[in-house]
Fold:
Amino acid sequence: MTSTDVPGPTAEDQAELEAMYDAFDAAHMKPLWTQIGGLMPTVPRPDAVPALWRWSTLLPLAERAGELVPVGRGGERRAIALANPGLGGAPYATPTLWAAIQYLGPREEAPAHRHTQSAFRFVVDGDGVWTNVEGDPVAMRRGDLLLTPGMHFHEHHNTSDRPMAWIDGLDIPLVRGLDAGFFEEGPEQLATRRTPPVSRNERLWAHPGLTPVGAPGTPASPLMAYRWKHTDAALTAQLELEAAGYPGVLEPGHAVVRYTNPATAGDCLNTIRCEMHRLRSGTRTAPTRTAGSSVWQVFDGTATVSIDAESFDVGTGDLFAVPSWARLSIETGGGLDAFHFSDAPVFDALGLARTHTKDPA
Ligand code: 1HN
Structure:
């Protein structure tokens, strides 16, 4: 008998198979053989898509929310999340990262709370808000990265007559996926209305290469503020050294600093990596794929960003999301400073980190 003579399933066989699949359904069981491609793709196949949010869209809408929606207990924060169009309406920029614009009007206060989710704020423009982290007042100003590690009480207050907007990044979707979220309201009264120019944590920890002996180290950074003055100086020095012929930058014309825990040199937050990138004018980054997702915000300058088949022209304040394993390249004519945050610490900790860089085309 040749293979063409093999008889197909009989009607009786077919009926038995169907009965088995119905029994699987009834017993809440799923056979692997119908699902393997979806469960184990050869490379990541994210639902998240390359996505762009323009500051010129976000800011007026946040201002409108400032006019129409009060901030206070219950809502807690006037934060409006970036929802990746591939994620079915969930308020997530990527499957692991929440990103939002937050807006606080003149003299407004956002109440104290704490949660297991890690958080940061990055300030693209403005000042006048202090965030009290565990009762330590931390000024928020242009170019600063401010941290709120998990389970630190935090509240915000605008001490000025001007509104202020900034971006928040949190690991909300990751923590939701792990069912690890815990949340507690704090005291009704603001912990303090003091507005010192330098917070206690900076006085202790913001001295390069000098660890305060006796101060307890922590898995997330004990330093809550990374000031633009320091970030800018580090990037300027890298590119000046490169121009003088010393090695030290990632690739020609591309300087990067990572915001780290001064006690460990590890990432500043347990679940979120934060970096500032500076591209010299006329620089194009090598197309790179990275396992793990991320969000960028242009801090200064302009660029053309290619993410897989998409291409976006971006300027100050614009945000874009890069799905896992998407091919990313950034090209700038006039120079670019861009803030970048990702879920890379999670990928590192779990042994899932991978990157692939093609030679520049
Ligand atoms: C939160 O605590 C802040 O403290 C911002 O500014 C956004 C989103 C969800 C849950 C808590 C903040 C948040 C948040």
